[in-house]
Amino acid sequence: MTPFRFGLIAALATLVLDQASKLWLYFGTDLVMTQPWRLAPFADFVVVWNRGVSYGLFQQEGGFGRWLLVGVSLAAAIGLSVWMYRSGSRLLAVALGLIVGGALGNAIDRAAYGAVFDFVHLHAGTWSWYVFNVADAAIVAGVIGLIIDSLRPAGRASRADVAENGGRPQA
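Given the sequence above, the corresponding structure tokens read:
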């Protein structure tokens, strides 16, 4: 199987898991009325509507900001998909697929609801991490994969081979 197909599988799995978890928690449970749900001493399920980007930065209340963020997410997903198509390693393709799937999952939320549904809250004592969802976790995992791939000598050689092949991976 080509690296691109691995990336597509990662993107599709991320998108399906993200949307399924959000739809189930929001519409299939009473989380909205009974939150927080304590999962562990350090983790809760809560309902947070994020109108901004990572860590709640750049909160957008108007329609322009909402659609601008949808457009940026879609443009990023397209650009990263092209990179994924040209990737020469499975790790790179999967990392890009995770980011693409996460970007599309959050873009769907913004388009449908005007905000991203976040629900996982990690905390310990007085320390509190931001609230996130499956798409956010996949994006973080994808970025970690990109960093690891960039540090691998084999990853650099694979990309060089792809560049010599006119930007197309060898099957």
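The beta strands are 37-40, 43-50, 116-124, 127-132. Try to locate this feature in the token string yourself.
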